[in-house]
Amino acid sequence: VFSLLIVAIGVYAKVERATDTVRDTFLIDPAVILILVGVVMFFITFSGCIGALRENIRLLKIFSCSLTMVFLIQLAIAILGFFYSEQTRAALGEFVKKAIVHYRDDLDLQNLMDYIQEEFECCGWNNYSDWSWNFHFNCSESNPSHERCPVPFSCCAHKPGETQIKTACWFEVPSHNHLLNSTSVYLVGCADRAGAWIESHLLIVGALTLSLALPQ
C-alpha cells in the first residue's frame, strides 16, 4: 500500500506539478524517481508477502535476491560518496546553483532553498554572493528588478530572543559589498554549514545508516 502511495504521488507530481524548471534543476526528474522507487518497492514487497503467505519458494528467492541487490547498491553509494566526497560536494553545489538561478521560477524550489537556508542558518552555497546568479537579485546597475542586490528573506539572521521573523532584512543592506559588515544576514555558505553539521552529528548519521541497513 505504501509503495502504491509513492507511485500515486509520483504520478501526481509528474502530471500536475512538473515544470521545465524542476527538470532543468534536478539531474533526474524527482517525479520519475518516486514512480520508479514505488514500482520497485511494490515488486519486492509483493514477492515477499505473497511468497510467505503461499510458501512459494520462487517468490521468496526473488524477494531475497532483490533485497540483497538493493542493500549492495546502497552500500556502494555510501562508499562512493565517502571516497569521492569532493565530487559529491561539487555535484550538490551544481544543484544548488541551478536552484538559486530558478529560485523565482518554481515555488517548490523556492520553498526548498528557503528551508535549507533557515534550517542551517546559511546563505547561498559558498556564501551570500551566490545570489547574484539569480536575475532578480543580481547587483548590476542595469537590472530593473526591485529586488536588485539583496538576498531572500531566508538569509535573514535571527537574533537571540527574537520571535518575529524578519522578511525584509535586505533593506538594511544596500549592496552585496555592505553585507560583510552586516549582522542582519547570514554570511556563511550552506556548504560549510552542512559539512559542519554532518561532522557534529556523525553518530546520528551512522546510527541512521545502520538502522536502515540491519533490517535489510
Automatic annotation (TrEMBL):
Keywords: Cell junction, Cell membrane, Cytoplasm, Disulfide bond, Glycoprotein, Membrane, Transmembrane, Transmembrane helix. It comes from the Eukaryota. One of its GO terms (biological process) is protein maturation. Pfam families: Tetraspanin. Disulfide bonds join C122-C155, C123-C139. InterPro entries: Tetraspanin/Peripherin, Tetraspanin_animals, Tetraspanin_EC2_sf. One of its GO terms (molecular function) is enzyme binding. It is found in: Cell junction, Adherens junction; Cell membrane; Cytoplasm; Membrane. Belongs to the tetraspanin (TM4SF) family. This is Tetraspanin. It comes from Danionella cerebrum.
